[in-house]
Amino acid sequence: MDFSSKLLEQAVLEMSQLPGIGKRTALRLVLHLLKQPEMQTLQLTDALSNLRTQIKLCKNCHNISDTDLCEICANPTRVKEIVCVVEDIRDVMAIENTGQYRGLYHVLGGKISPMDGIGPSQLKIKSLIDKVREGEIEEIIFALSSTLEGDTTNFYIFKQLEGLEIKTSTIARGISVGDELEYADEVTLGRSIANRVPFESSLKS
Ligand SMILES: [Zn+2]
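Above are the sequence and the zinc ion SMILES. Below is the predicted complex in structure-token form.
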């Protein structure tokens, strides 16, 4: 691609770093921004820049948050004894949308995936085990997607919890294998949390 402007070229290059955005699409987006009022582009760059500099991870559940303790963890009406283990904030949002869950979350930040070089130490697993050891949690609900990586991660955590006084369950599989949580509809997802089953019995099938 030949650019008549270095500034344009730089903007297109940066935009095309985004997933699913090729050079052509990047050029279209950048030209679109140029046609919009200047304020609109500045609001976009401000939002992105604030996102990077001000966003935090909740110190309790590792969810993305504006404050040290996220709104869910800080809410006194939430049931602190039940913790739902999820991959990332998209799963938290999907489960929150069901309106069926009143416990807290623990966001792992991914799934164990040797193919992608992601091992247990790169995920927030140790802090979960530590929380269980402290004895304030009564039940852990595994709500990772039922992919090979999700199952591997569940099982790894389950093994780490052996010998600790804790009830473990997994969301009922109304969600078919391979479906990602965020794509499950709210009714199905809500029902699968309400009808969760003991984790051990999910291993036999
Ligand atoms: Zn939190």
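Residues 58, 60-61, 63, 69-70, 72-73 surround zinc ion (CB under 6 Å).
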